[in-house]
Amino acid sequence: MEVENTKALYPIGIVAELLNIHPRTLRIYEQEGLIKPARRGGKRFYSNNDLQWLKCLRRLLNEDGLNIAGVKKLLTVAPCWEIRGCEEFVRKSCPAILNFPVPCWDLVPRACKEKGLVCTECEVYLKKKNHVMMQRCMEEKVQDSTA
DNA sequence: ATTCTCACA
DNA sequence: TGTGAGTA
């Protein structure tokens, strides 16, 4: 049965235990804008989508040689909906990438625009590349590194 | 019992 | 990144 993956259910302690990530680290990820857990009464609560994203983030950070800055960059240049041509109603119910710090549908390729530069090819290339990376990452079966 | 923020190593 | 302090 498909429950709401967007519902914030887990407090930071549970998430930390489930993913073996120090609470401090989780807070830093949030501080860096890489994750946006819900807030209830000043407390953080993560959804299943958040967990999935965290697993993906972990892989990006630990295995794919990316750092926080790198992941941030990735997120700023990956308007997947534009690449896939998703309708608005599709975007709003996208199960994979949903609880991102910045909703994917709000992302706008701005790197070049701000500079008044028009490197369309480069932009498209990056978007596709990022899209593929994100898709693969989110789809991957994550093996808990429960050491 | 838990989490929060902040400072410090 | 991880810990300890002092709260809420």
UniProtKB/TrEMBL annotation:
Keywords: DNA-binding. Residues 9-77 form the HTH merR-type domain. It comes from the Bacteria. The keyword Nucleus does not apply. It holds the Pfam family MerR_1. This is MerR family transcriptional regulator. GO terms for molecular function: DNA binding; DNA-binding transcription factor activity.
